[in-house]
Amino acid sequence: MATIQDVARSAGVSTATVSRVLSTPELVAEPTRLRVMTAVTALGYAPNMAAKMLRTLRTEKILVTVPDISNPFFSQVIRGVEQAAQDAGYSVLLGDTRHEPEREERYGEMLRRKEADGLIFLGHRLPDSLTDMMQAQGPRAPIVNGCEFSPDLAVSSAHIDNERAAAEAMEHLYGLGHSRIGVITGPLASPISRDRLAGVHTAAGARGQDAGLRIATGDFSIESGVRETLALLDGDPSLTALFCFSDEMAMGALDALRQKGLRCPQDVSLVGFDDIRFAKHLNPALTTVAQPMEQLGQEAVRLLLDIFAGRSQDFQQVTLHHRLVVRDSTARAP
Amino acid sequence: MATIQDVARSAGVSTATVSRVLSTPELVAEPTRLRVMTAVTALGYAPNMAAKMLRTLRTEKILVTVPDISNPFFSQVIRGVEQAAQDAGYSVLLGDTRHEPEREERYGEMLRRKEADGLIFLGHRLPDSLTDMMQAQGPRAPIVNGCEFSPDLAVSSAHIDNERAAAEAMEHLYGLGHSRIGVITGPLASPISRDRLAGVHTAAGARGQDAGLRIATGDFSIESGVRETLALLDGDPSLTALFCFSDEMAMGALDALRQKGLRCPQDVSLVGFDDIRFAKHLNPALTTVAQPMEQLGQEAVRLLLDIFAGRSQDFQQVTLHHRLVVRDSTARAP
DNA sequence: CCGCTCGATGTAATCGATTTCAGGGATAGC
DNA sequence: GCTATCCCTGAAATCGATTACATCGAGCGG
After folding, report:
1. How would you classify the pairing of strands B241-244 and B156-160?
2. Predicted confidence band at B304 (pLDDT cuts at 50, 70, 90)?
3. Average pLDDT value for residue range B307-315
């Protein structure tokens, strides 16, 4: 690899001039600039990032941690992150934590070591290694949550109004005449699960239907969707509708319904959450709460850039719009 | 951020000693080591990667480019990459090229600039910016393909035997008595599509069934699966089986069959490719060719590490095992 | 014709680590 | 008691860029 020294020598100028040609060309006389550029292309010179980073103390990288990259919801959010980051001249360091706190810590350390300028985390836990940083820097700590956080937590984040969204999904079911409804939540450690569950209870309460609710706790996975659906139906065969807190669990629910010989939506209506790419291609096409996944990622990047630029005086909560997408998996109660 | 200087001062030693404590502790006397470690924890010191990189000329990062991260096949491969990279002490720089050559180039430049020690690309095109590097360094260029390449191309890669796998899928259909079979390939620019297509013809030829083949070209997406299935059925309503070169296209095919009022597998059998997580939860559960996705990613990393370590004298082609998974979407020809 | 300003360029310090080489002290061997 | 050896530690060079400051020459006003 050619260094800036090589270019300087080849063009007969100092390294300072070469550096200026590359970053502030308006300070350099045109003939000199051309001479340098010729040398640059001749040598195929590209600045060494490590040296640049060391000098400027900026990495131009954003670290993104995700509990499971193979989950279509997360991968779609990451797509938005990657897009926005790239547009702003940043690249993305990916961390798949596999839901393991230990891995989360490892990535937290990376931020502390300044291997990235900022962190977007898509899980619900902030690594312990970063609580110091959060406490010391508060809203100016370069840490943002990409989808999971509650409005009241001390990190900037982008998210939808999960409580309202869940309430709307329930309203949809109540509107169709369902009164015995099974709900499969995500892990209750996760604020989004709690928010959505709160929305479920709000809607049920408003209709005086609390007694008809059956709550089960899943973990957002297909398998837990199967398992919890079977459990719910065994516990109460009179259920006519299911609301799953993720589309993946809804896929599992569809499986379970088939196993039980129940038809969707004729016997049991089903609502999912997220509107991943596959939701509309299921059989039946899934009614679900759509989240603007790419946009969540983009907003998270924007929040982070604001922090970099010192534009954030306080934690910011960006609430994006959700939308109940009614397809073929919900119908009038039998 | 505390620097190594701060630690040295606080522990009353030189920076050299601090560095040694952290990287070659066996060279340091125990009392000194303890004193330094105390200072390290007290100050919360973590070495600055940029400085380390500059000095060692290694970034400990692997760049992974992917045509579409939200594709479950790719995201699963990436999972394997991330896992193996992490285990080897590397982190992953993610590049979603969105199938755009321009973005691919941008990431190629990153490798040239040494922002990563190596590149794993999951698409089928090597960026132009890297052909120089490949030519200059040959098998020692830190570039590996993660799934798409043909055995005869000049890059190390991990993949399955696509030709054979496709032939087996066809054999399965012939074995069930199908003779009029529609095939939906991926873009023929991609070697895997061509290899699989070759396998299709091999199998058909062996059975003397070439005349019964109907070939359509898709792009691996759900939408193209819908579109090409409709086109195939319109062109030849007597088809009794479909073979799609990706599970996503097979999902689209299922949609299209429903639109046409055809039942799967009673009227039309369907075979997919990849065995993404959702394949077995479709209705009907999809018969498909399983690729060891995570393992592909892990192998790609291993190949790259071999190159880093100078263990690769020549391009290496690792062929992993595929497996035809027969589920409910295929049945005897009507 | 002198001094001042301004544009263009060079000099050199700096970022924070790693690593080579040299030196100092203790121990052991003779 | 003197030297050789072995540990341990420190001084300083180094990686490749950026950038504050210095310098130099040209042009211009008085």
Report:
1. unpaired
2. very high
3. 87
Quote the pLDDT of residue B312: 82
> Could you tell me which CATH class the domain B59-160+293-321 is placed in?
alpha beta
Closest CA to A110 of A88, A83, A137, A143: A143
pLDDT for A151 equals 60
Which residues in chain B have their CB less than 8 angstroms from residue A95's CB? 82, 91-92
Give, in Å, how far the C1' of C12 lies from the CA of B189.
54
* Mean pLDDT, chain B, integer: 94
Chain B residues lying within 8 Å of A295, measured CB to CB? none
Phi, psi of A122 (to 5 degrees): -100, -5
What's the rounded Cα separation, in Å, for the pair A117 and A128? 18
Tell me whether residues B86 and A93 touch, CB distance under 8 A.
no
User: Is B150 a residue whose pLDDT tops 80?
Assistant: no
Q: Where are the alpha helices (DSSP H) in A153-214?
A: 162-175, 191-207
Domain ranges of chain B: 4-47, 59-160+293-321, 162-291
The superfamily (CATH) of domain A58-160+293-320 is Response regulator (3.40.50.2300)
CB contact under 8 A, A49 and B114: yes
User: Which nucleotide in the DNA or RNA is closest to residue A5, CA to C1'?
Assistant: D16
Of residues B91, B103, B114, nearest to A93 (C-beta): B91
**Which residue type sits at A119?**
L
Can you identify the CATH homologous superfamily of domain B162-291? Response regulator (3.40.50.2300)
